[in-house]
Design goal:
Blueprint (H helix, E strand, L loop, with lengths): L2 H8 L9 H15 L6 H8 L3 H4 L6 H13 L14 H18 L4 H6 L14 H13 L4 H30 L8 H11 L7 H10 L4 H20 L1
């Protein structure tokens, strides 16, 4: 961990007592900066300036803390949807999709946890994986006159769309924002190039297309794919 990131995570107001939410917030910051693979209770204790054992008064261990991280970033996802847009089912899905996308953009390190951790029940599908969020989704579409079968089919298609496109976008954003203290190791890159049988710097085709491939078109791609999904759903619910 860099000294800069240590300082940013250690900025605990003098006299501020630990609480479950305070620990969860610190864990969110840590995972967004470093990912969750090497995440330990000791890491969070270090950045908060306490022994790891002090955290167990508020969380039951690493798994409980990671689940709390997921719940926290999803909390309130439906609280600020645009009332004008949500007067139609298409508008509801558009604003909800953008709300979930904003979570992925704000927390690119945490979003893979949202997508990949086991949900609260086997019939929940990431990233719409909390009971509160799914209840809002099911109730809203039912209120627009969808049959039960249409509601479930829409939930499956919508969650699959979000999962695929937002995991990719979060991964790309995470790559852009990774600390400069964690560069790609030159030897690893050379090993990958040898395995692929290419030299990235010398390959004419790669040099030709790399500028276009590097352009950030994520918002445009998201909106286009969302419109295509809504058009397909509209055909299925008529």
């Amino acid at each position: 961990m860099t000294r800069t990131s240590q300082r940013s995570l250690r900025e605990r107001p003098a006299g501020r007592r630990l609480s479950r939410q305070f620990i969860v917030d610190a864990a969110i910051t840590y995972v967004d900066q470093h990912g969750n693979r090497a995440f330990t209770m000791r890491d969070i204790g270090n950045v908060l300036g306490v022994e790891a054992m002090a955290l167990y008064r508020y969380v039951n261990g690493r798994e409980d803390l990671l689940e709390a991280v997921v719940s926290s970033v999803l909390e309130g996802a439906t609280d600020h949807l645009d009332d004008a847009l949500t007067s139609t089912w298409q508008g509801y899905l558009q604003t909800l999709a953008n709300a979930i996308r904003q979570i992925a953009l704000d927390h690119p390190g945490v979003f893979p946890l949202v997508a990949m951790r086991h949900p609260e029940a086997p019939w929940l599908r990431p990233p719409l994986r909390s009971f509160r969020l799914v209840r809002n989704f099911l109730g809203t579409l039912s209120g627009f006159g969808f049959s039960d079968e249409q509601v479930v089919a829409t939930y499956r298609a919508f969650s699959s769309f979000l999962l695929g496109i937002l995991l990719l976008e979060a991964a790309q954003l995470r790559a852009k924002t990774t600390s400069v203290d964690e560069p790609v190791v030159k030897g690893d890159r050379q090993m990958l190039e040898r395995a692929a049988g290419v030299d990235v710097d010398d390959d004419e085709i790669i040099r030709r297309f790399r500028p276009l491939l590097s352009e950030d078109r994520s918002t445009e791609e998201f909106e286009t794919a969302l419109e295509t999904l809504l058009d397909r759903l509209e055909m299925s619910v008529k």
